[in-house]
C-alpha cells in the first residue's frame, strides 16, 4: 500500500505526528504543575477549602495528562533512532548530551516525585508533599529548558565545528545559549501558561454554565482568566522579539511567514492571502492599510528592508503552511487577548462571568493547543529544507527503513492517537461534571441564595 | 579484538558508558519488569484484586519506565551509530512495544477517571498493552542476540524468547505481589509465580545455549578450560536460585497460614537475582560488541568531548537519582493500600 510513497516523507509525517501529539500534554503540564503549587499555597494561606477542592479536580487532570505526556514522550526518545539515524550520526555529539541531561535532571525528578505527589499525601508530611509538588513542577520546566536548547540549536546553531562531516562541540555554553534559545524558551513557557489558563477557564466556565457555582469553580475560573489576561500581553511582546531574532538568523523563514516574495523596503503587512508558489505571489491578498507596516514590525522602521523569498532559491521552506500557521497563531493570540481582558474586567466588576462570556470561554478551552501547534509548525516547517539550519538537510538524515514498514506503524499511531485524544477530552469534561456531583448539595444551596460579590484582593 | 589505550579518554569513556548502559537496562528490566508482569497477570484477577494490584505499582511505574528512557538515551548519546543500527533493525518490535507502553500507561489513569462502565475496557487495555510491550521486548532481545540473523530458525527463537520474557516478567510481577499484598491475593500470586517459573527457566536455558552458537567468538569465550572454571558458577547459581524459589513457593501457603510474613520479600529478591545472573551471562558473551560481532563500543562511541560533558552530569546527578528513588520506595514501604488519587 505504501510502497510507492517516499519513505522520507513518511518518516517526516510520522515524526511530526508523534511530536505534535506529545507536545499537547507538556503544554498543559508545565503550566498546570505550577498552578497546582499555587493552589496549595493559597490553601495554606487562606485555609479556604475551595482551593483544596480545586486542587483535587486539577490534580486528576494533571495525573491523566502527565501519563499521556510520559508515554508519548517515550515514543519520542525512540524516534530519533528509528526515523533520523542520519541526524544522530552527524549531530549526535550535540543532541545526545542535551537529551541525556534532560533525562538525568528532569525526567527522573518528575517521575519519582510524581508518585509521592499523587499517592503520598497521607504518607508524608504536608511540607514534604508540597516539596514533592514543587519538584515535579521544577522537573517539567527543566525538561522544557533542555529540549528547547536542542531545538533552538537546530534552528540557530552556534558553538560547534565540523570535522569529517560530523558536528563537534567547541563550546557547550554557546551550544545551549544559542541566539534563539532565550526567546524560544520564554515563548514556550508562556505558551504553556496560556494553554493551562484557558483550560482552567474553559472547564470552569463549563461547570458554571451547568449551574455548579461552588467556591472551587470560582477559584479556578478566576485563576484561569487572570492568568490568561496577565500572560497574553507578555506573549505578544516576546513573540515580536522572537520574530526580530528570527529575521536576523533565518530570514527565509520570516519571508515565508509574511508571504513576502520580492525583496524590498517599506513593505506592507499581508493580513491574509493564499501563497501561490508556482507563480511566486499571493492570491486573494489582503494588505493592511498602513504603508510599511511589515517593515515596521519586523525591523522597527517603516522604511526597513526585508529580503523576499526570491533571495533564497532552493533553500526556503514551503510557504503556504508556514504562512497559514503563523496567521493562526497570531489570530488565536488576538482572541485570547480580547477574551481574557473582557473576562478579567467582568470578573472584577461583577464577580462572575456573563453567560455569553462563559460560553466563549468553553469554546476556547483548547485554544492554547491550537496556537502551540501552529507556532511549532511555523518554527519547524519554516526551518526546511534544513534539519540543522544551514548545516544538515532533512533528506540527508532520513532512515532507510522501507516505506511499507513506516506506513504501517504510522497508521497504527494515527488510530491510537485519535482514540486517545477523544477519550482524553471526553474524560476531562466528565471529571468536571463529576466534581460537581460530589459536593452537589453544598453548591446547590450556595447557588440558590444570592452570593455577595467576592471582594477583590 | 583491537587493544585500546585505556589511559586515554577515547579508551575508557566508552567502557564507562557501557557500564552505565548496562546498569540502566538491568534496573529497567527488573523494575518495569514487575509492573509489566502485573499488567499481564491482571486478566486473571477479580475486580477488587485488580484495584489492589494496580495500587501496588501506582506510585512507581512512571519512574520505572524512565530507566528505559535513560537506557535509550545513553545508547543514543554515547553510541549513536549502534543506536541507529539497532533501532532501525528492530523497527517493528520497537513500534509495537511503544504502542503497548502507551496503551498501558494511559489505561492506568483512564480506568479510574473515565465512566465506571468503561473500566473493564481500560483494564483490558492495560492487560493488552502490558502483554504487547513484554512480548515485543522479548522479540527484540531474541533478534538482538542472533545479530538480527535472517531465517525462520532465528525468528522462531526470537518468538520463544518473547514468550519466555513475558513469563519472566509475570514471575517478577507475582513476586512483587507476594511482597506487597496479603491474604487470598497473595496466595494467588504464589500460584501465578509457580506457573511462570518453568517457562522462565526454559527461556534462560535457551538463551544460554543459543548465544554461544551464534558466534564462534562467544563460544570460545565460554568453552575454553580456564574460562569455564570461573564461569561455571553462573549457570550453577542460576539453577540453584530456580530450585530455591520453587521450594519456597511450594511451602508458602503453609507459612502464610501460620502467620509467618518474615520472608515475603524473599521471592522477589530471588527472581531479581535470576534476572541479574542471566544479564551478567549475556553481557559477558556480548562484550565488547554492541551489535553482535559487528560494531564494538569503541567504533560506536561519540566524541570524547561530548561523553565527558555528559559524564560530569552523570557523576553529579546519578547518586541523587538513586537517593531519591530509594526514598520514594521507602515512603511507600510495606503492604499496598487502596489508592486515593491525591
Ligand atoms: C515544552 C516542552 C517539551 C518538548 C518540546 C518536548 N517535551 Fe518531552 N516532555 C516534557 C516536555 C517537553 C515534559 C513536560 O517534561 C513531559 C513530562 C510529562 C509530560 O506530559 O511531558 C515530557 C515527557 C517526555 C518523556 C517521558 C519522561 C518520563 O519518563 O518521565 C520523554 C522520553 C520525552 N518527553 C522526550 C521528548 C523528546 C525526545 C522530545 C523532542 C523531540 C520532546 N520530549 C519534546
Ligand atoms: C514540541 C513541539 C514540536 C512540534 C509540534 C514539532 C513539529 C514538527 C513537524 C510538524 C515537523 C515536520 C516538518 C516537515 O517535515 O516539514 C517536525 C520535524 C522535525 N522536528 Fe519538530 N516539532 C517540535 C519540537 C521539536 C523538538 C523539541 C525537536 C528536537 C529537539 C524537534 C526535531 C525535529 C526533527 C528532527 C524533525 C525532522 C525533520 C523534518 O521533518 O523536518 N522538533 N517537527
Ligand atoms: C501576536 C502574538 C505572537 C507572535 C508575534 C508570535 C511570534 C512567534 C514567532 C515569530 C515564532 C517563530 C519563531 C521561529 O521559529 O523562529 C513563534 C513560534 C511559536 N509560538 Fe508564537 N507568537 C505569538 C503568539 C503565540 C501564542 C498565543 C502561543 C501559544 C499559546 C504561541 C506559541 C508558539 C510556539 C509554541 C512556537 C514554537 C516554539 C518557538 O519557536 O518558540 N505564540 N511565535
From TrEMBL, chain A:
Q: Does the keyword Cell membrane apply?
A: yes
Cellular location of this protein? Cell inner membrane; Cell membrane
The source's domain of life comes to Bacteria
Q: Which Pfam families match?
A: Cyt_bd_oxida_I
Which InterPro entries would you find in this protein's record? Cyt-d_ubiquinol_oxidase_su_1 (IPR002585)
What's in the keyword line of the UniProt record? Cell membrane, Electron transport, Heme, Iron, Membrane, Metal-binding, Transmembrane, Transmembrane helix, Transport
Provide the membrane topology annotation: Multi-pass membrane protein
Q: Where are the transmembrane segments?
A: 15-37, 57-78, 98-119, 131-149, 188-209, 221-238, 322-344, 356-378, 410-431
Keyword Membrane applies: yes
Q: Matching PANTHER family, A to Z?
A: CYTOCHROME BD MENAQUINOL OXIDASE SUBUNIT I-RELATED (PTHR30365:SF14), CYTOCHROME D UBIQUINOL OXIDASE (PTHR30365)
Family statement drawn from the similarity comment of this UniProt entry: Belongs to the cytochrome ubiquinol oxidase subunit 1 family.
Supply the name of the protein: Cytochrome d ubiquinol oxidase subunit I
Automatic annotation (TrEMBL), chain B:
Bilayer-crossing residues are 12-31, 81-103, 124-146, 152-177, 197-215, 227-245, 265-287, 307-329
Matching InterPro entries: Cyt-d_oxidase_su2
The subcellular location is: Cell membrane
Q: How does it sit in the membrane?
A: Multi-pass membrane protein
Protein keywords: Cell membrane, Membrane, Transmembrane, Transmembrane helix
Per its record, how is this protein called by name? Answer: Cytochrome d ubiquinol oxidase subunit II
* Protease in keyword set: no
**What family does this belong to?**
Belongs to the cytochrome ubiquinol oxidase subunit 2 family.
Amino acid at each position: 500500500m505504501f510502497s510507492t510513497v517516499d519513505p522520507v516523507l513518511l518518516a517526516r509525517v510520522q515524526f511530526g505526528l508523534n511530536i505534535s501529539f506529545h507536545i499537547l500534554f507538556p503544554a498543559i503540564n508545565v503550566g498546570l504543575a505550577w498552578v497546582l503549587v499555587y493552589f496549595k499555597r493559597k490553601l495554606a494561606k487562606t485555609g479556604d477549602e475551595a482551593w483544596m477542592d480545586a486542587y483535587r479536580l486539577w490534580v486528576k487532570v494533571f495525573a491523566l495528562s502527565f501519563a499521556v505526556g510520559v508515554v508519548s514522550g517515550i515514543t519520542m526518545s525512540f524516534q530519533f533512532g528509528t526515523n533520523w539515524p542520519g541526524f544522530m550520526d552527524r549531530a549526535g555529539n550535540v543532541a545526545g548530551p542535551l537529551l541525556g541531561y534532560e533525562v538525568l535532571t528532569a525526567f527522573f525528578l518528575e517521575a519519582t516525585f510524581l508518585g509521592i505527589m499523587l499517592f503520598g499525601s497521607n504518607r508524608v508530611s504536608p511540607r514534604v508533599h508540597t516539596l514533592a509538588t514543587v519538584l515535579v513542577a521544577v522537573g517539567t520546566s527543566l525538561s522544557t529548558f533542555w529540549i528547547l536548547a536542542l531545538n533552538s540549536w537546530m534552528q540557530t546553531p552556534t558553538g560547534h565545528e565540523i570535522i569529517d562531516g560530523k558536528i563537534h562541540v567547541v563550546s557547550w555554553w554557546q551550544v545551549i545559549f544559542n541566539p534563539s534559545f532565550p526567546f524560544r524558551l520564554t515563548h514556550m513557557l508562556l505558551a504553556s501558561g496560556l494553554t493551562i489558563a484557558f483550560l482552567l477557564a474553559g472547564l470552569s466556565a463549563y461547570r458554571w454554565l451547568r449551574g455548579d457555582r461552588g467556591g472551587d469553580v470560582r477559584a479556578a475560573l478566576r485563576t484561569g482568566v487572570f492568568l490568561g489576561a496577565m500572560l497574553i500581553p507578555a506573549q505578544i511582546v516576546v513573540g515580536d522579539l522572537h520574530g526580530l531574532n528570527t529575521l536576523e538568523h533565518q530570514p527565509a523563514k520570516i519571508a515565508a511567514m509574511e508571504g513576502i516574495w520580492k525583496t524590498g523596503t517599506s513593505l506592507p503587512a499581508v493580513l491574509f492571502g493564499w501563497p501561490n508558489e508556482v507563480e511566486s505571489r499571493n492570491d486573494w491578498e489582503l494588505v493592511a492599510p498602513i504603508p510599511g507596516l511589515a517593515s515596521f514590525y519586523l525591523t522597527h522602521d517603516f522604511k526597513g528592508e526585508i529580503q523576499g523569498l526570491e533571495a533564497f532559491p532552493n533553500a526556503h521552506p514551503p510557504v503556504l503552511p508556514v504562512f497559514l500557521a503563523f496567521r493562526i497563531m497570531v489570530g488565536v493570540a488576538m482572541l485570547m487577548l480580547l477574551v481574557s481582558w473582557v473576562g478579567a474586567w467582568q470578573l472584577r466588576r461583577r464577580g462572575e462571568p456573563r453567560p455569553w462570556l462563559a460560553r466563549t470561554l468553553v469554546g476556547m478551552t483548547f485554544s492554547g493547543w491550537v496556537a502551540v501547534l501552529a507556532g511549532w509548525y511555523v518554527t519547524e516547517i519554516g526551518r526546511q529544507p534544513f534539519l540543522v539550519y544551514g548545516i544538515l538537510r532533512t533528506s540527508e538524515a532520513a532512515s532507510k527503513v522501507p516505506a511499507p514498514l513506516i506506513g504501517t506503524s504510522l497508521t497504527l499511531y494515527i488510530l491510537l492517537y485519535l482514540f486517545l485524544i477523544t477519550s482524553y477530552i471526553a474524560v476531562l469534561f466528565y471529571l468536571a461534571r463529576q466534581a460537581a456531583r460530589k459536593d452537589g448539595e453544598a453548591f446547590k444551596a450556595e447557588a440558590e441564595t444570592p452570593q455577595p460579590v467576592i471582594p477583590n484582593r | 579484538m583491537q587493544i585500546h589505550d585505556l589511559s586515554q579518554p577515547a579508551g575508557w569513556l566508552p567502557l564507562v558508558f557501557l557500564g552505565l548502559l548496562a546498569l540502566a537496562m538491568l534496573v529497567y528490566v527488573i523494575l518495569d519488569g514487575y509492573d509489566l508482569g502485573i499488567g499481564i497477570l491482571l486478566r486473571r484477577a477479580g475486580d477488587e484484586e485488580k484495584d489492589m494490584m494496580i495500587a501496588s505499582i501506582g506510585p512507581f511505574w512512571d519512574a520505572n519506565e524512565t530507566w528505559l528512557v535513560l537506557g535509550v538515551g545513553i545508547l543514543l548519546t554515547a553510541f549513536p551509530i549502534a543506536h541507529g543500527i539497532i533501532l532501525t533493525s528492530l523497527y517493528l518490535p520497537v513500534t509495537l512495544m511503544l504502542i503497548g507502553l502507551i496503551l498501558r500507561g494511559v489505561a492506568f489513569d483512564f480506568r479510574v477517571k473515565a465512566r465506571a462502565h468503561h473500566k473493564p475496557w481500560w483494564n483490558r487495555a492495560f492487560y493488552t498493552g502490558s502483554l504487547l510491550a513484554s512480548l515485543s521486548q522479548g522479540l527484540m532481545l531474541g533478534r538482538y542476540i542472533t545479530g538480527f540473523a535472517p531465517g525462520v530458525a532465528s525468528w522462531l527463537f526470537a518468538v520463544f524468547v518473547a514468550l519466555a520474557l513475558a513469563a519472566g516478567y509475570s514471575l517478577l510481577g507475582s513476586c512483587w505481589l507476594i511482597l506487597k499484598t496479603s491474604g487470598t491475593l497473595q496466595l494467588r500470586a504464589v500460584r501465578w509465580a509457580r506457573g511462570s517459573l518453568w517457562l522462565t527457566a526454559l527461556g534462560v536455558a535457551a538463551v544460554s545455549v543459543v548465544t554461544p552458537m551464534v558466534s564462534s567468538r562467544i563460544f570460545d569465550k565460554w568453552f575454553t578450560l580456564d574460562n569455564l572454571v570461573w564461569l561455571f558458577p553462573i549457570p550453577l547459581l542460576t539453577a540453584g536460585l530456580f530450585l530455591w524459589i520453587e521450594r519456597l513457593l511450594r511451602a508458602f501457603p503453609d507459612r502464610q497460614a501460620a502467620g509467618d510474613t518474615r520472608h515475603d520479600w524473599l521471592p522477589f529478591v530471588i527472581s531479581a537475582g535470576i534476572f541479574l545472573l542471566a544479564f551478567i551471562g549475556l553481557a559477558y558473551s556480548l562484550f565488547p560488541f554492541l551489535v553482535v560481532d559487528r560494531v564494538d563500543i569503541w567504533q560506536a562511541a561519540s566524541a570524547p568531548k561530548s561523553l565527558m560533558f555528559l559524564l560530569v552530569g552523570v557523576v553529579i546527578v546519578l547518586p541523587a537519582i538513586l537517593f531519591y528513588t530509594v526514598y520514594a520506595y521507602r515512603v511507600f514501604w510495606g503492604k499496598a493500600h487502596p489508592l486515593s488519587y491525591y
